[in-house]
# Entry
Amino acid sequence: MGEIRLMKGNEVLGEAAIRCGCDGYFGYPITPQSEVMETLMLRAPWNETGMVVLQAESEVASINMVYGAAGAGKKAMTSSSSPGISLMAEGISYIAGAELPCLIVNVQRGGPGLGTIQPSQADYFQAVKGGGHGDYKLIVLAPASVQEMNDFVDLGFELAFKYRNPAMILTDGALGQMMEKVELADQKPRWTDEEIHKMSGDWATTGKPVTRKKNVITSLEMDSDVMEAKNRRFQEKYKLIEEQESRYELIQCDDADYIIVAFGTSARVCQKSVEIARSKGLKVGLLRPITLYPFPNAIIKELARKAKGFLSVEMSAGQMIEDIKLAVYEAGSNARVNYFGRMGGIIPTPGEVVDALEDKFSWELSYGVKRSY
Amino acid sequence: MELKDLIKPENLVYDKSKLQEDEIMHYCPGCSHGVVHKLMAELIDEMGIQEKTIGIAPVGCAVFAYNYIAIDWQEAAHGRAPAVATGVSRLMPDTFVFTYQGDGDLASIGTAEIMHACNRGENILVVFINNGIYGMTGGQMAPTTLEGMVTATTPTGRDVKRNGYPLKITNLIAQLPGTSYVTRQAVHTAASVRKCKRSLKKAIQNVLDKKGTSFVEVVSTCNSGWKMTPVASNKWMEENMIPYYPLGDLKDSVKGENVLEN
# Structure
């Protein structure tokens, strides 16, 4: 069993980065995630593992430093909060286009614009649909506890290198600031030059020996046919990720008539909502997507066969609901899909989720059958 | 004496560096890029550092720099080469990392990245091609475009009241404590090519010796963008560019000199 500590989500992100053998962190201060870099600077991992931690001049620079480090085959990461992630969108698109593995953490705050420093989930679209220009996807992990904040750093890197694709931890200010018990992983060594050569030697810019072809990290291709072929290959990769990497958690869904779908902080709230609803005699379960991309379509299709309705609970104006609707539509189900959420940094309460469920599904609850259209 | 008797290694006076790739050049005839590429390929070869060199290409005409020199390359987003170079150099401190950037890339969209990389004293070489125009996109005004100079976006000439003043960014860079060697060179004559090569060699050696950022500006021509012949471009550069961007070392802290007059 690993070391157990009481830690903030943001602190754990930094600690987990060191322990998983990360080579470099590049970041810029922004509330509510500044503790990530503060933790790293205090821990001074360069003395211990040789990990580099650098405060960049902007998020634009941070993500491009990650590009450079990842291009050299290193484990590189950055973290920021919503407005900072918008600034990184250009760099993330280049990283996806050049197929570089790296980890990006978004500790979301309310938007749009400068918005608020309170927690939000309004960057769902930005995270799961790409976020920058061009057809690309990030592997998006949504932790719902400080423990998962810890675990997903290592998992994020693992998936990023498995698919040579950027991975993102999409979390929020509540999880970043919240303190919980966490079991830390044991310190892993950083990769040696030999390991990097073995794993990424055919693409990483480690310095060209006379005997091998030069490695060029680029997303540029002037020949449209070649560029289209590259895009097709990307889409095949994303399809493979969709088939193999979907992760979710089901809570009391076996007999559920109504499925609440919520991730991260919302899912924590909705666990209580399920309890309240059950105490009122409502058969309610919770589906918690752990990967937001790939979205757990298959399980929604399966649940949609018998569920009367889905309630998407989000700290946004209703973004994930679109993906739920697509899955329900593809399942040929006539289960209704509704939304309840709060915005601008407000976290919904368990009670108001149950009230919303009773209100939105009042027809079904009154007549006991699915509403047909 | 037969011709074949003359063709011997000991009689060879010039040879293409073996690090120069046999790619068809996309640069326009007369462009300065080709000469600077050649110098970099020669120096990396002569100094025996191919295996530890990583080049960072910009966005602009030199976006395809990676096609021409047989080393590992990363192609950066517009203006971001110094940040990319930072990422590589920090994590691979024993490599020689250089960025190769034009004036739009370095002195306009990438101003923050270049200033801060130089201010941190990143152990990299910056090769800065200043031809006073955006070549790749079709000859628009650059931050370095001279007053009165006609470009696609200043069709009646750069009006400083509307467009601001041509930016001597190298002079700003020279004032940053992180830089060890800052110089302004050109490649329009045989003598200037030789001098530029000496400067680049010194700059590379500084990086190998971990002396912080070295910065080599090359005042260059863009005959296509300037709408002149290559010969006329060289003349125009001598008469107009060099008086505003005078050649010479701006800073050589390794030698203990700090020359900021020009």
Q: What stands out?
A: Chain A has a mean pLDDT of 96. Chain A has two domains: 4-183, 249-367.
